[in-house]
Amino acid sequence: MRVLLTSVPAVGHFFPLVPLAHAFRAAGHEVLVALAEHPEWAASAGLPVVDPAPGYEAVALAMGTLEADPAFRDEWFKPIGPDRDISPRAKMFAGFNGPLVAGTLELAEQWKPHLVVHEQTTSVGAMVAAKLGVPAVQRNIGPVVTNNTHRLTAELLADLNEKYDIPPVPATAEIVELLPPSMLTAPAEGIFMGGAPYNGGGLLGHSLPRRSERPQVVLSMGGGFSARFFGLGAMHPLLASAAEVDADFVLALGSADISSLGTLPPNVRPSGWIPFGELFRTCTAVVHHGGGSTALAAIDAGIPQLVALDPMDVGSGPLAASVQERGVGLVAAPDDVTPAVLERLIGDDTLRTATAEVRMEIAALPSPSQVATRLADLAARI
What we know:
This is Glycosyl transferase. InterPro entries: EryCIII-like_C, EryCIII-like_N, Glycosyltransferase_28, UDP_glucos_trans. The protein is of the alpha/beta class. It is 42% helix and 13% strand. The protein has two domains: 2-195 and 365-380, 3-Layer(aba) Sandwich (Rossmann fold); 216-363, 3-Layer(aba) Sandwich (Rossmann fold), CATH 3.40.50. Strand 10, helix 13 and strand 11 form a beta-alpha-beta unit. The longest helix is centred in the N-terminal third of the chain and has 22 residues, at 90-111.
């Protein structure tokens, strides 16, 4: 069986697909990834990849969508509602997906997959599956509800549907949740999957990272898109508070330009890119922007987390709520992250206990291999 996986180029969207990709390959299936802008993410995961849209720039597309429609811009920056429905945001998803349609469809028609797996906002996966008449499987990226997102996105891309003779998007054949049941603050849309989260590969230097004798806390803003789209302004109050805490801090911002942060406090060091799984195992806690992959990496490492929720980053609100309600971490606006909040993050054993409980819950869920087998059987029946 041939499985095509596709995602918009954001770490928190693509990385959740990788465990499934590896599981399909381990079971003997052919796997191919369609990923624009950062195809190296798939290549570094050992996966064959095609860039379906050379020159694609996600941040520019997002900004262009918002600038073109001020009314939608106002709606976009409102918090996601209590129903967790993301379909009202379809105009942004159309902006991300439109440039991917031609190249992804050309690739799919050439390779002829039997199954298309896409993440929750990559409607092009559903559209391509509809065109080829094969099932589409969705991998969720957080505690949000898809509802009519793909249908609405496809309707906003009606010119492309007409140009490439793409039929209406049918119902998704299966959905694989990102979070375990106890952290899902939205109604479950599909099946659950356990296993270790994928958070990138990379050269670790001449030796493994070591755990410090002092508390060590990661400060992160995700894998790139968030840092570039929202900027690093939220880091300034975090760094100011970190300077007053008796702990070491690792600034993990990947390849982001940190010159705007000025001189770092003596107890803060930049790390560049390092796989979170390896970094977090040497740390006491992590402060991050509210990405699902980062949250799961912290749970997998058994450390508590603090979501420093940028008021502009409303898309991370549902994940922050899940972290707080399950008790695996704290939530605060960056300006409210005081030294006392960081000290609680480091020393509150109740956060560590809840994290251990969720880690065990995830370990008991079906493995990626079991889920891949189920999805392959599903594709064979349809």
